[in-house]
Write a structure and sequence with these properties.
The chain is globular. It has 272 residues and is mostly helical. The chain has 10 helices and 6 strands; from the N terminus they run ββααααααββββαααα.
Length: 272
């Protein structure tokens, strides 16, 4: 059936089809693209699948045009790929600097700043997502600094996380059903409530912010408290969406499983 070129485009842009996807196509594949950035993402990274969106792009109602989202994804993806082997450490710094800038702008505008502070560990009692490169960085950092990785605890925690047929996190857990001693992150030092890998902590730990209070931060078996209010800075959401899309094959494995894989690669008997 032929598409009515004067109808609203099915991509969600709100434009007429002839002014949107109907005006930009790849004649070799027959695919329709929102703009050139969408086409670049599909041909260079997505290869037909959807992007792994994060933060406000999926958690908050917004009216950002599809063109702007694709432009941001392409821009950050290209920058990330250009940095090569050290890209994770570089983008950790970019994220940190972007957050510092946003916090300062919020203060100037009289807005609520994030409630998070040193010693608050409410978000350290849940599974953590990271890329395979972040897991490698954490493993190397722990080896260099003689930081203990409790693999036995990781394996026990693993049993309370549900994974799908592709070994990716399904979004469901029974995390709070395990012993209280096993619920904290393996890198949380309970003696002083600090992170032992703070310098190389994953992206998601860097951007996880509560607004006004930490009273509702803790989730229960993966289900957030409905009273919880998070702060989702757009620049962080764009950056993490681009990086997670690039690392699509590992981001769903979660930090624990990726670290176990690191250990397995070095000592194959650990998971037998």
């Amino acid at each position: 059936m032929k598409t009515d070129r004067n109808a609203i485009c099915p991509c969600g842009s709100g434009k007429k089809y002839k002014k949107c996807c109907g005006n930009h196509s790849d004649f070799k594949t027959g695919k329709r693209y929102v703009n050139e950035a969408h086409e670049w993402m599909d041909k260079n990274i997505l290869h037909g699948r959807y992007p792994d969106l994060y933060g406000f792009l999926i958690l908050v109602d917004h009216n950002i045009p599809a063109e702007e989202i694709w432009n941001q994804l392409q821009s950050w993806s290209e920058q990330y790929l250009e940095f090569g082997d050290n890209r994770t450490r570089i983008f950790h710094r970019i994220i940190d600097e972007a957050i510092d800038c946003q916090v300062e702008l919020d203060k100037q505008d009289g807005l609520h700043s994030c409630y998070c502070r040193k010693g608050c560990t409410n978000c350290c009692y849940q599974p953590v997502a990271c890329t395979d490169e972040e897991a490698q960085l954490i493993y190397s950092y722990c080896t260099k600094n003689k930081i203990h990785i409790d693999y036995e605890k990781l394996q026990r925690q693993h049993a309370y996380i549900e994974f799908d047929a592709n070994n990716n996190f399904s979004g469901r857990t029974t995390w709070n059903d395990q012993s209280e001693e096993d619920q904290p992150c393996i890198f949380l030092d309970k003696s002083d409530e600090t992170c032992t890998i703070w310098e190389v902590r994953p992206f998601v730990c860097r951007v996880h912010f509560a607004e006004q209070t930490d009273e509702y931060c803790k989730s229960n078996n993966g289900v957030p408290n409905p009273n919880a209010k998070g702060i989702h800075y757009p620049v962080c959401s764009y950056i993490l969406s681009a990086i997670f899309t690039i690392h699509h094959d590992s981001i769903g494995k979660l930090m624990g499983q990726l670290l176990l894989n690191q250990k397995f690669d070095e000592y194959p008997s650990i998971l037998k």
